[in-house]
């Protein structure tokens, strides 16, 4: 067996219809995993990825679920087990932004970002962990953000959720480690996706100036790290936060 093969493994990726989630799904498929692609509303994008994944010789299904809702996360995990029998990898990627300065931030903007970006990860981990505990193996990878480490003006809700992900990751790693389950967080910097497309060229140029590698990252840059963490190459790594940010934040 190759060192990084995920052959016959099953991976759930939340928010897999575009951006970083899409790139992660394709990377895991390249490594041989069967995929459960979660989407919230757009089956269209997800159907295209299924085709692309199946061309790689692995299987994929799409499951609609709003991961901020506990019962829908349960439905997602149940669909995965019904189809593939086991779940070896969970990637909590789904996320939203509702940016605004504190004085203008509405209560519902705070709640919705926490509910998707933080509670959503709890919901999926809660339902997947029982299966992984029985298997005595599993890899959980949570997508955080560098702003969860540094904070960011105008993103109080988002930064709080992403910081919460770090505490959740480390606590789950401590609880689940004795049963062979690793839990890690990935903290991307500025990655070129629909989420950052809304920024003006001027803002993007300013951001580039703060990045030692002087360029924005690609979804594939994040997917490469997730692929590594999902493989046995990362068997002895748990409870860690690893940045993919061109050197923007150095701890
Ligand atoms: P994106 O907006 O392109 O994709 C997010 C995906 O999550 C979409 O497919 C969306 O439908 C899905 N989603 C949103 N709410 C959902 C829900 N309730 N249930 C199920 N799916 C839901 O964003 P992007 O850039 O691909 O981000 C992916 C992850 O990476 C997010 O967690 C984001 O916070 C994080 N991230 C992104 C950075 C960037 O610069 N693009 C930087 C740091 C972190």
TrEMBL record:
InterPro entries found in the cross-reference section: 3oxo_ACP_reduc, KR_dom, NAD(P)-bd_dom_sf, Sc_DH/Rdtase_CS, SDR, SDR_fam
Domain of life: Bacteria
GO biological process, one term: fatty acid biosynthetic process
EC number: 1.1.1.100
CDD domains: BKR_SDR_c
Quaternary assembly: Homotetramer.
Entry similarity comment: Belongs to the short-chain dehydrogenases/reductases (SDR) family.
Protein name: 3-oxoacyl-[acyl-carrier-protein] reductase
Species annotation: Clostridium pasteurianum BC1
């Amino acid at each position: 067996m190759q060192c990084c093969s995920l052959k016959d493994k099953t991976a759930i990726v939340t928010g897999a219809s575009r951006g970083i989630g899409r790139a992660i799904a394709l990377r895991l498929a390249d490594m041989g995993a069967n995929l459960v692609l979660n989407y919230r509303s757009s089956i269209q994008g997800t159907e295209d990825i299924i085709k692309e994944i199946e061309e790689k010789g692995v299987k994929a299904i799409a499951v609609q679920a709003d991961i901020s809702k506990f019962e829908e996360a349960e439905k997602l995990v149940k669909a995965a087990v019904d189809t593939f029998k086991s779940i070896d990898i969970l990637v909590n990627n789904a996320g939203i932004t509702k940016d605004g300065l504190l004085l203008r931030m509405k209560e519902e903007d705070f709640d919705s970002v926490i509910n998707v970006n933080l509670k959503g990860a709890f919901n999926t981990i809660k339902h997947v962990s029982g299966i992984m505990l029985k298997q005595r193996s599993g890899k959980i990878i949570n997508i955080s953000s560098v702003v969860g480490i540094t904070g960011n003006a105008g993103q109080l809700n988002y930064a709080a959720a992403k910081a919460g992900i770090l505490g959740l990751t480390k606590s789950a790693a401590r609880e689940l480690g004795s049963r062979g389950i690793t839990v890690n967080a990935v903290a991307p910097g500025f990655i070129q996706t629909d989420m950052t497309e809304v920024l003006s060229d001027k803002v993007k140029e300013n951001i580039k100036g703060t990045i030692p590698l002087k360029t924005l990252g690609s979804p594939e840059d994040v997917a490469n790290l997730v692929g590594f963490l999902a493989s046995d190459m990362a068997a002895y790594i748990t409870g860690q936060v690893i940045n993919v940010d061109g050197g923007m934040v150095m701890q």
